[in-house]
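Troubleshooting log. The previous structure file for this entry was overwritten by mistake, so regenerating from the original sequence record. Sequence copied from the archived sheet and checked twice against the printout by T.R.
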Amino acid sequence: MTFRDELLSILRTLNAQRVRTFLTLLGIILGVGTLVVLSSAIEGSGKYMQRTMQQATGEDVISLSKRWDDEETGKAAQPLDRFDSRALKRSDILNQARILDKYSMRVPWGTRWGQNIFVVGTRPEALAFYKLEIAQGRFITAEDMFEQAKVVVLGSDARKKLLPNVANPLGEEVKLKGQRFRVIGVMKPKPKMGGGSFQTWDGSVIVTEPVYVDRFAKSKEIREIVIQTPASLMESFGIGRLAEAAKDIVLWRHNGVQNFNVSDPIKNAQGLQVVKLIVGGLEVAIAGVCLGVGGINVMNIMLVSVTQRTREIGIRRALGATKGNIRRQFLTEATILAGVGGIAGIVGGVAIAYLLSLALTAAFGYWPFIFVPLQAALGFIFALVTGIGFGWYPAHQAANLSPIDCLRFE
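Regenerated output below.
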């Protein structure tokens, strides 16, 4: 009997016993499907957190932001301002870094009294620094900055608030602090995780920094200073030392009073890594238990199959089949079982992950579906290894049966 004949015989056997085959594969399907679903959910949660972060984040980003209370210092000090930003730009250690200022304040809009909205003044780099995305139109440009153009980009909530009955807001005008501005873009939703009453990008109107300083600013105060360090500085000093240098420069200007927060990229990265390790460990543990159960099912069913096909084994041995042929036949059957289970697990996991992303998007406003090919491939490989590992013992038992005893078996 050729390998092709053996393969066709195995497929006919599995097809004739579909229910038993499915029950055998259930554990493997659950194990591989768990890997696919959890890996998709983990990657989706990362994208969700990135989308909902209102601050600039990243392994190469240092952020200095306004502190909303002075409980820690108990002293009054000047707020972050544009002169702090200039001092950072002129420092010897940070003069190669990209530094972005973010201004914001509440201003009146429309014609009714008591209508206020956050206006943010910034530069084109904010689109990348804060992971913003444009839904319609465009973001502010260097040309807008140079011309001090009276143009705005609306957050998703600000668009509903300022232009509630306008189908296409591009080109429309909004009135801010008694002045008219033309809408050039609308951002995709970036909801704040956990809510809160402070400024969010969804509820903000973005103007260029020169326009903000000229037409809105009551003082030189800055809400946040973002420093993006180049690779050369990271290699020379490390992000921790650069963050300390930025803190020391501003602290010196504030007479030793720290009335601002400094992000700690190292702690943030370490915390994220710990979370990933914990979740990844749980993912592997759950998938491992499911695959272990599936492997035991495969072994039990294969042992039953050996018993039921004892006479067939005896006939094949009498016709010249070797122990290796018998062992290969049952190992191939176990491998095919595991492979089919792995494929079914991947397909089922992708379907569940997609439906889960739709449900989470309906609940939280945004949760992308992400397929992780590496996890799916690992799940399929683990399924094959499980089939071969747990199928070896039944195959070995079948190969060692006595041909005479097999022919006498009833």
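The mean pLDDT is 81. Archived copy saved in two places this time.
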